[in-house]
Write a structure and sequence with these properties.
Blueprint: H1 14-20, H2 83-95, H3 101-124, H4 131-134, H5 137-142, H6 163-190
């Protein structure tokens, strides 16, 4: 039938569909619909029972973009701003519009600072981060990490040389700093 002069029948009639497909058109009759007695057809109705929604209380100042007049009625409070990363985020929201690259670059920088703050905070706790298990280094040896990178044209292999520096670098620097601190204290106590 394809590519012929005859025009095919485009859609079957309601009776043909109902005869060939069991249950087809079951909701065509309004009385057969489960919500029919309460159902109203009003395209202009939104279903809201308010003109402006009730606002969530703002217990501490939240960040908001400079192009918005006020916060949305509901907002997240799970991660309050803290530390240097919080200062960077506040500055990004207070100074730059969301349409500016500086806004987003500052937020990315704040994320990086936040991860460093988390690593530093883990040194203070009784359970510091485990460099070997949490970075996935062991899977490089167990799951063919090196062989999957060589001999292929994967894009991520171009920057993989710097991954050990970025992951292990802060730990090596922190260890070196701790060693120097302990050695300095030991020399002063020994005098």
């Amino acid at each position: 039938m394809a590519y012929t002069a005859e025009k095919p029948k485009l859609s079957p009639s309601i009776e043909e569909l109902r005869a060939s497909i069991p249950g087809w058109g079951a909701d065509l009759d309004k009385k057969d619909r489960p919500a029919w007695p309460r159902e109203r057809f009003d395209p202009g109705a939104s279903g809201a029972h308010w003109d402006f929604p009730e606002r969530q209380p703002e217990n501490y100042p939240r960040e908001r973009s400079i192009e918005h007049k006020f916060l949305t009625p509901v907002f997240g409070t799970a991660q309050p701003l803290a530390g240097l990363s919080g200062v960077i985020r506040k500055y990004a929201y207070a100074r730059f519009s969301e349409g500016r690259a500086a806004h987003w670059l500052l937020l990315i920088a704040a994320d990086r600072v936040n991860s460093v703050e988390g690593h530093v905070a883990s040194f203070v706790t009784l359970h510091p981060d485990n460099l070997i298990t949490e970075t996935g280094v062991l899977s490089e040896f167990r799951r063919h990490g090196f062989s999957s990178r060589f001999g292929s044209r994967r894009v991520d292999t171009h920057h993989s040389w710097m991954d050990p520096i970025l992951v292990a670098g802060p730990w090596v620097l922190a260890g070196w700093g701790a060693f120097r601190l302990v050695r300095g204290i030991a020399r002063r106590v020994g005098k």
